[in-house]
Amino acid sequence: MHILFITSTRLGDAILSTGLLDTLLRRYPQADFTIACGPVAAGLFAHMPRRVRTIVMVKRTYDRHWFDLWRQCRGRRWDICIDLRGSITSYFLRVGRRYVMRGGRRPGRRIAHIGALLSLTPAPLPVTWTSQVERAQASRMLGTGVNWVALGPTANWDGKIWPAERFVALFNLLRAADPGLRPVVLYGPGEAEQARARPVLAQLPDALDTGGTLSVTQVAALMGQCTLFIGNDSGLMHLAAASGIPTLGLFGRSRASEYAPCGPWARAVVAPGPEGEAPMQGLHVEQVAQAALALLRQWRDRKR
Fold first, then answer.
1. Number of domains the chain contains
2. What would the pLDDT profile of 177-205 be if each residue is shown by its tens digit?
3. In this structure, what CATH number is given to the domain that contains residue 297?
4. Which is deepest, 12, 198, 215, 258, by most CB within 10 Å?
5. DSSP element (H, E) containing 138
């Protein structure tokens, strides 16, 4: 049995689709999977069970990337095609059952729209797939006896970014309440990401700097061993929630009603003002600290 799964070019949306993939893995234990996604999201599926191929879709003018996908998939009959991009590609392939999600933005949780494609209510929560080698590497990086707080001070555009000095003040408040905490700063590759993370690293001298060189699944393995994640609305935020750790997403210029983190211990703190238009500067350090400490208390009480 062969399943073609067409998912997002963006990392965050691709992560939200992993719960649907996990459902298909359990529902069809005899199936193999081909994933089609953008370059940024491709590494997310590196250790997915029964994945036989990842087709990396590089955007081309005049939507020619869809023709490239069709050309790479036309030689096989697909038992199921899941298309979260709302394309017409699957209609030109030999497909037994196709499920195509309508394109464009619409109100409501993105994860709910994804789950509704297979009439799944509630929608399945995102998951991560990491290797034993990556988990061992994360253990060596973090060591033992430390409660790590992962900070995600970057995002794909500046309007979504909480000021760096507030991340620093936030962590200092958290450590005052719990001296056993230590920060690890996460960010993506490239000079822009490094520039956004640099002020936080400079003011937290004992922070572990991950350097922006880790793969998506290496970061997921690292997050899985942290005590808490606090960060802007980003792919890293969704990855943290998918790893199952307490996750606090910070929202202002993006909509928590659509993209709040999804996980058993995932919460959002929203800046005051019109949804999706509120400046991140309106989100106060004390407000975020209170939400973070409350989330940690709930998580620790449940673990007892």
1. 2
2. 999 999 999 999 999 999 999 999 999 99
3. 3.40.50.2000
4. 12
5. helix 132-142
